[in-house]
Amino acid sequence: MITPDPETLVRDHTVYSCVMGSRAFGLATDGSDTDRRGVYLAPTPLFWRFDKPPTHVEGPAEEQFSWELERFCELALRANPNVLECLHSPLVERIDDVGRELLSLRGAFLSRLAHRTFVRYAVGQRRKLEADVRQYGVPRWKHALHLLRLLTTGRDLLRTGELVIEVGPAREELLAVKRGEVPWPEVERRMTRLAEENHEAVRTSPLPAQPDRSRVEDFLLRTRRASALRHDQG
Fold it and tell me: 232: pLDDT confidence band, cut at 50, 70 and 90?
C-alpha cells in the first residue's frame, strides 16, 4: 500500500469536518474567516510501517486543520477545549458512518476534567492579554471576547453537563467587547467572576469525574479493524 501524502489523507479519508470559530459560535461579522476542522481515518495498514501516518494535517485549504481519529480521541478524552467544541459544531460540512458514530460518543468524552482545561487555557490567555495592556495600553479585544466566551461555555458545561458552543443572546454583549466598547477593568471583572463561577460549578456538576475511555477505545478498535479488513479485501 502506497503511503498517501497528508493532503490526500484529508481529501480521501475525512470522516467528519465542520466549521468552527466565530461562525460556529454565532459571533461572525463581515470579514470573519471560515475556520474548518476535521477528523480523518488513516487506513490501518499505514500503522504497520516504521513511518506512521501524521497525527494532524494543516490544509489543504486556508484555515483548515485536521486530526487523525486516534489523536482526536486522545485530545477529547483529555478535555481539550478546541477538540471538544469541534464535536458540537452546528455547522457540519462532511460526515460518514464513522463520523456519525464519533458524534454519537460526544457524551463519553465529557467529564469534570473540563474544569481544569477550560480554566487553565483561559488563565494562559488572560496573562497574554495583561501583557498586552502593560506593553501597549490596550488588550487584543478579539482575544478578550473569546476568553469570555470560553469561560462562559465551560461554566455552562459544568452546570448542565451539556456543551453548547453558540453564544445565543450573549452575542451583542460579546461583540461590544470585541469593538473595544467595554472598559478593560470591566472586562477583567467579568473574567474573574466567570472563573469563580467555574470553580463553584465543578463542585456540583452532573458530569462524571472521568470520561468513558473504554467506550471510546472500543469504537477506535472496531474502526481500525474494519479499516484493516476493508483494505485487505481490496
Answer: low
* Inside any domain, residue 230: no
Rounded CA separation 37/92 (Å): 10
Q: 122 with 105, same domain?
A: no
Please state, as a whole number, how many other Cβ atoms lie within 10 Å of the Cβ of residue 48. 9
* 5 pLDDT higher than 90: no
Evaluate whether 205 touches 161 at the Cβ level (below 8 Å).
yes
Can you read off the three cell numbers belonging to residue 73? 480521541
- Kindly report whether the global pTM for this prediction surpasses the value 0.90: yes
Backbone phi and psi for residue 206, each to the nearest 5 degrees, phi listed first: -75, -5
Tell me the mean pLDDT in the region 17-25. 96
pLDDT in tens, 31-67: 889 999 999 999 999 999 889 999 999 999 889 999 9
183 burial via Cβ count (<10 Å: 0-12, 13-18, 19+) = exposed
Kindly report whether the peptide bond that precedes residue 53 is cis, defined as omega within 30 degrees of 0.
no
168 and 90 share one domain: no
